[in-house]
Amino acid sequence: MTDSSLQSEIKEILSQGPIAGFVGGEDLPSSSGETFPVIDPGSGEKLADVHNLQASDVERAVDVAAEAFKNAEWANLPVNERCVYLHRLADEVENRKPLLSQLESMDCGKILGQAEEDVQNFIDTMRYFADLAQNMQLRTVLAVKGHEAAYTRHPWGVCGSIVPWNFPFLLCGWGIAPALAAGNTVVVKPAEDSPITTLYLARMVKELGFPDGVVNVVPGLGEVTGAALSANPKLSRMSFTGSPEVGRLVAAECGRNLVPVKLELGGKGAAVVFDDIDVPETAQKLVDAITFHTGQVCCDATRWLVQKPVYDEFVNEVSERMQKVAIGYPSDEGSAMGPVVSEKQKGRVLGYLEKGVGEGAEVVLEGGSAEVEGRPGGYYVKPALLSGSLDNVAAREEIFGPVAYIAPFEDEADGLTKANDTAYGLANSVWSSDLGRCQRVAESFVAGNGWINSHNVVVHGVPYGGVKQSGMGGGVGSLETLLDYYRGISVVRPL
Ligand code: NAD
Fold it and tell me: Which ligand 1 atom is at minimum distance from the Cα of 220?
């Protein structure tokens, strides 16, 4: 596809008038007629209007998905035939990768190359779960005394999935691929800041001949559309990815209906850097991590704990490198860091800097608002680095921007205690040339993920999840996830 035909296709998608939800293979506009604007964070300009689906619309979506499950056209397909659909979807997303990446980049302000990686991740996720499901042993005979027994797995029914704005397409894939591979139907609620690629995907699914009602997308505001989905008693499962505050609300609603819920929440990850590392190399890797998607990454390393002998040198290296990060419009060549997702998010980042300094944090690198030439309306911020007491609000709470907090530690025990002294438990990393020490420290993190000499390492086949305030019931991207999407039944006959 040439650049100009790509641009004209994007224009066509975005200029068709308000984009409706997609339910039962058809457009579903909001019953109230309400819409909300979706903004390009890189320019502050409106990309499109999207329908704000109401509680009754969500109810309809769940009913349609339940009917599609009951018809069993999807659930009863032989698994290899069902997985042909998933492979077909992966192939078609691959064919349309330039278009989807561009849309994703504009929708959530992601550097184009990173949006391409997200789309590739969606493709890989579809293929991974399709292949895994085909190799699942769904019936296990259990050798027990005096009984004939077996444990059998079946799909649940309708699975809800509520997705945040930072990795919209990638996380949509993480939510729907295992659910569909296992034979469930899905209702996806994308984030209001970035719903476009998920809505586009719903129409692709229809084009590819998936049975109607298998994949449904309900765009809208969290407190309306998301709340209605979490409160629906006909759901069989719910997967929520987002903030701990909203995760609690979703879990409470699901709890009322005893709907099993999986929460993938925020983080305040630590990087524990020992004094035997290559300082410039490690500094660059952590700067890359904190500026990746402008720091709006749940598993990011935002607390940099550095062993005393190299602390001063490390502070100098990282602050020099952070100042050099090229801030620019996400699809412009040479841009290394784009905007944050919204004006509200920009206010949140700047607000945390102010609160942190107000509580006595030392400013190593001030950060603040940034300007990008020709994009006066974009929501740009500069990378910032604070230091001081780890009790500071900026060291304790998730900021979700390119802001790191740096502090020294004495020895292994001290580094580990400081890393684990947080309400969160998503991902920490350890950096040292002593791999034995790395292994020891990584295994002692109270977190879902421990990474060695690297950060943001998410691999298909390895469960990714959080503990404490970072998640519940979890792990995505692995066999564990697929197993979540089957309900089990034990069948026993006394002999
Ligand atoms: P958010 O919690 O504000 O919103 C997430 C989703 O929930 C959105 O679709 C939103 O519309 C919906 N929502 C809002 N209010 C709701 C309500 N009352 N009931 C039901 N749904 C509601 O989060 P966000 O700002 O979109 O995303 C950022 C957060 O997500 C951060 O905390 C980040 O760490 C977390 N996150 C976690 C992971 C992970 O895998 N652990 C991945 C990405 C993001």
Answer: 11
Cβ atoms of residues 154 and 487 within 8 Å: yes
Q: DSSP string spanning 437-457?
A: HHHHHHHH-SSSEEEES-SS-
Residues of the chain with pLDDT under 50: none
Cα–Cα dist 274/292, whole Å: 23
φ, ψ dihedrals at 380, nearest 5°: -100, 140
Local structure of 495: helix, strand or coil: coil
Three-state SS annotation for 368-407:
EECCCCCCCCCCCEECEEEECCCCCHHHHCCCCCCEEEEE
Testing ligand 1's pocket by substitution, the residue of 298, 397, 426 carrying the most ligand atoms inside 8 A of its CB is 298
Measure Cα distances from 345 to 136, 348, 352 in Å.
Answer: 42, 5, 11
Spatial separation of the C-alpha atoms in residues 30 and 25, rounded to whole Å: 16
73 C-beta neighbours (distance < 10 Å), count: 15
Q: What pLDDT does 1 receive? A: 61
Tokens of 290: 């904190």
Q: Tokens for 45? A: 């300009």
Q: Which of 108, 159, 172, 298 is catalytic?
A: 298
What is the Cα 20 distance to its own chain's centre? 23
Q: What's the confidence (pLDDT) of residue 72?
A: 79
Cβ(118)–Cβ(110) below 8 Å: yes
* CB proximity list for 412: less than 8 A, separation 6 or greater: 274, 437, 440, 441
Question: Residue 251 and residue 244: Cα distance in Å, rounded?
Answer: 10
CA distances from 223 to 92, 162, 208, 230, 385 (A): 33, 12, 32, 10, 34
